[in-house]
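Quick review question:
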């Protein structure tokens, strides 16, 4: 069985460069800068900004990045 190579350029054009994703990415960057100004986080401190339905909060990067994606949870219809 051969594995199909990913076309990263095509993926970027379809998803990351869309107007919706640009706006979401700009919002995430804005939230991170705001948290840095407020002194809640700084570069190299091992913390991330976690985005959820209630807004944002600061948490350890290992916790934020280790959380299971909703699409990978048992019973998800998305594949």
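Suggested answer, residue by residue:
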């Amino acid at each position: 069985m051969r594995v199909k190579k990913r076309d990263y350029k095509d993926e970027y054009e379809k998803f990351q460069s869309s107007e919706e994703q640009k706006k979401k990415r700009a919002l995430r960057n804005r939230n991170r800068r705001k948290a840095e100004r407020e002194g809640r986080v700084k570069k190299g401190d091992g913390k991330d900004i976690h985005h959820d339905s209630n807004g944002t909060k600061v948490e350890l990067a290992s916790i934020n990045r280790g959380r299971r994606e909703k699409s990978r949870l048992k019973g998800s219809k998305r594949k």
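Why it works: The radius of gyration is 16 Å. The longest strand covers residues 47-52.
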